[in-house]
Amino acid sequence: MDGIKYAVFTEKSIRLLGNNQYTSNVESGSTRTEIKHWVELFFDVKVIAMNSHRLPGKGRRMGPIVGHTIHYRRMIITLQPGYSIPPLIEKRT
Predict the structure, then answer these.
(1) What class, spelled out in words, does domain 2-77 have in CATH?
(2) Angle at 45 between CA 9 and CA 55, to 5 degrees
(3) Which residues does 31 contact at the CB level (< 8 Å), separation at least 6?
(4) Residue 8 dihedral angles phi and psi, to the nearest 5°
(5) Do residues 48 and 36 lie in contact, with contact meaning Cβ atoms separated by under 8 Å?
(6) N or C end of the chain: which has fewer CB within 10 A?
(7) What is the pTM of this model?
(8) Would the keyword Translocase be found if you checked this record's keyword annotation (predicted)?
């Protein structure tokens, strides 16, 4: 449960929900097999594919000090047809 940080809701991720694909940011040290096992165990779904890419940290500046935020990894998880992750499809009222 510690591997997944939060779900991502962008234009692309909302479009991918129609293809039964869910997008989330995960810890940069997590592996695909760890995330796949956790998603299948916690949400009781079957994962058929996982795509990931590493996003670079953004530059930050505070006066003369220049720094950057930490990098993170984004996963796109594809589920088998007929499965879904319930908290992400509930409608707000």
Answers:
(1) alpha beta
(2) 35
(3) none
(4) -110, 130
(5) no
(6) C
(7) 0.77
(8) no
Residue 29 backbone dihedrals phi, psi, to 5 degrees: -90, -5
Residue 18 DSSP symbol: G
Helix, coil or strand: residue 86: helix
- Collect all residues with Cβ–Cβ distance below 8 Å to 26 and sequence separation of at least 6: 3, 4, 5, 35, 52, 72, 73, 74, 75
Question: Is residue 67 helix, strand or coil?
Answer: strand
10-residue mean pLDDT series, the chain (93 residues): 80 91 88 89 92 88 88 91 73 47
